[in-house]
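Regression test case RT-17, inverse folding.

Input:
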């Protein structure tokens, strides 16, 4: 029988699964507590759970299906994990420390089909989607790592900004949210969770219709179609005239602020002209917009791009600000390790190819 990750089950699903197999309902609550409050890493450590129930769980589920391949620690406290999945695929997860808490950046797919021309994750085509359990397990693994350091630290924030396009793995992403949001479990509040999409307009409509308060970020990167298509192939399928109405629908439906991500590429999309175009594009939704300017993190394979100069970054920022657009420049985390999403994985795969 094929085992799956125990973390893929919501509390209701775990209860149903156990009761269908003759276990009492309170067992499910005990198991849930061992998983998410006491956070054991082996079913046999669930001391007040009967052996029959433990045997059932062991037979059907993994409690640790990810294997730590590489752990890189940065001087600023950022920790980057390269995990090996059961099928041998590699994924990345990053823990970042901020003054407001500990944030984990999770991966949703093995590779990415969107193929943005600046991104290390898109270098390798999508091999498969991650299951909801595999996404939850990334957080559990990081939390276990923190637990083992004995400092009583808790993961408090989640950004779905690792490898992959989360809206291309929509239902597993939603399962993941349900598990980590559970108040008797990790209890990570929806307002502390942000999901980033490259702009799959049809899924933005679906997301707007969900009754949840998770934050949405949209990777815009350019204020006009010509430039956006050059930087992100997905703009052919979802050009601005499809993307912007989806965003307007989301704003109207939820009244929640959207973050627009804008990666600054030297002499490509960082001129004053583009800043003015961007301000115009967002002018009618200024009150619900925040632009996050991201200094490009160089990727070896994308040597056509360079990071914008400090001067260009400041000018871009000030042009937006002058036009009433809320914005900020992303502060880099872990720049002394392979920080940009997908870099550690693509380097490891290259290394494996050389050594095999
Ligand atoms: N696929 C989703 C989420 C993952 S990418 C999306 O594209 O939104 C998350 C963010 O990482 C994106 O905004 C992207 O712009 C940023 N990113 C990717 N490669 C980068 C690089 N080389 N330097 C800086 N940011 C990068
Ligand atoms: Fe995929 Fe996001 Fe990278 Fe684009 S930026 S290739 S959508 S992971």
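Golden output:
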């Amino acid at each position: 029988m094929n085992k799956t990750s125990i973390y893929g089950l919501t509390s209701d699903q775990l209860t149903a699964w156990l009761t269908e197999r003759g276990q009492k309902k309170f067992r499910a609550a005990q198991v849930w507590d061992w998983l998410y409050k006491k956070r054991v890493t082996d079913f046999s450590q669930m001391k007040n759970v009967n052996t029959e129930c433990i045997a059932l769980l062991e037979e059907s589920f993994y409690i640790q299906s990810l294997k730590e391949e590489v752990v890189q620690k940065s001087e600023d406290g950022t920790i980057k994990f390269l995990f090996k999945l059961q099928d041998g695929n590699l994924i990345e997860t990053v823990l970042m420390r901020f003054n407001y808490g500990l944030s984990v950046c999770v991966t949703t797919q093995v590779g990415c089909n969107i193929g943005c021309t600046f991104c290390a994750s898109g270098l390798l085509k999508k091999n498969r989607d991650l299951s909801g359990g595999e996404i939850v397990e990334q957080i559990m693994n990081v939390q276990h790592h923190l637990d083992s350091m004995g400092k009583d630290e808790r993961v408090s924030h989640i950004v779905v900004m690792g490898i992959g396009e989360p809206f291309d793995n929509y239902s597993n992403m939603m399962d993941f949210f349900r598990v980590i949001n559970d108040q008797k479990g990790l209890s990570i509040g929806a307002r502390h969770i942000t999901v980033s999409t490259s702009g799959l307009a049809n899924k933005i409509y679906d997301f707007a219709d969900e009754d949840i308060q998770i934050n949405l970020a949209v990777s815009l990167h350019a204020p006009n179609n010509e430039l956006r298509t050059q930087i992100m192939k997905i703009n052919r399928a979802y050009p601005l005239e499809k993307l912007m109405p989806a965003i307007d629908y989301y704003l109207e439906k939820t009244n929640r602020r959207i973050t627009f991500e804008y990666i600054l590429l030297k002499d490509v999309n960082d001129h004053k002209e583009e800043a003015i175009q961007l301000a115009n594009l967002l002018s009618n939704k200024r009150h619900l917009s925040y632009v996050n300017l991201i200094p490009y993190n160089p990727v070896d394979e994308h040597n056509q791009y360079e990071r914008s100069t400090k001067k260009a970054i400041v000018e871009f920022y000030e042009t937006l600000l002058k036009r009433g657009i809320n914005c900020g420049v992303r502060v880099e985390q872990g720049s002394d390790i392979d920080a940009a999403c997908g870099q550690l994985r693509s380097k490891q795969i290259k290394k494996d190819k050389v050594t095999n």
